[in-house]
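User: Sequence recovery, please. Input:
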């Protein structure tokens, strides 16, 4: 339930809730519960946006953010969206609302968001489980890898977004 609320209202970063899942429930149950919670929360955000429209979404998401990712709404860029869900540090909860305004079907959205979030869910759950079981060396190796991934995604975020926009323009011209 905490994962569902975290996606919808973001009272705390999703990284914290994923870590807590691993700490409290262990690896397997933590991954299962986090994935279920994230999937339900993502679906609810997507559905709320689809039902209530842009004015509703703009109450939660800044206009600048909406404008920045507007290109995602004008085509079925499923692969691009999947890459965004895979990108560490990307605001995935906001993305769920934004995508609810676009052309992805609910089935496409659920498949993309669930699979895209899965890698992060596994890593966070492992981290929580490692701390609970006093496996500090494993935790710090995992943490180091995650920090490097986040750091690289932050450095290249603008370049990645430019590539996505160029791909979008090419797809749009081909239509």
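Assistant: Recovered sequence (175 residues):
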């Amino acid at each position: 339930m905490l994962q569902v609320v975290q996606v919808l209202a973001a009272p705390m970063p999703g990284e914290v809730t994923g870590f807590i899942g691993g700490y409290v429930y262990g690896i397997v149950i933590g991954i299962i519960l986090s994935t279920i919670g994230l999937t339900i929360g993502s679906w609810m955000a997507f559905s709320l946006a689809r039902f209530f429209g842009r004015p509703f979404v703009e109450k939660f998401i800044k206009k600048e953010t909406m404008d920045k990712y507007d290109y995602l709404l004008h085509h079925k860029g499923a692969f691009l969206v999947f890459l965004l869900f895979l990108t560490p540090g990307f605001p995935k909860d906001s993305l769920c609302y934004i995508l609810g305004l676009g052309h992805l079907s609910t089935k496409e959205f659920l498949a993309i968001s669930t699979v895209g979030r899965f890698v992060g869910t596994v890593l966070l759950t492992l981290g929580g489980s490692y701390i609970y079981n006093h496996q500090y060396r494993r935790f710090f190796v995992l943490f180091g890898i995650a920090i490097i991934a986040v750091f690289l995604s932050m450095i290249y975020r603008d370049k990645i977004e430019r590539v996505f926009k160029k791909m979008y323009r090419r797809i749009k011209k081909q239509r």
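The chain has ten helices and no strands.
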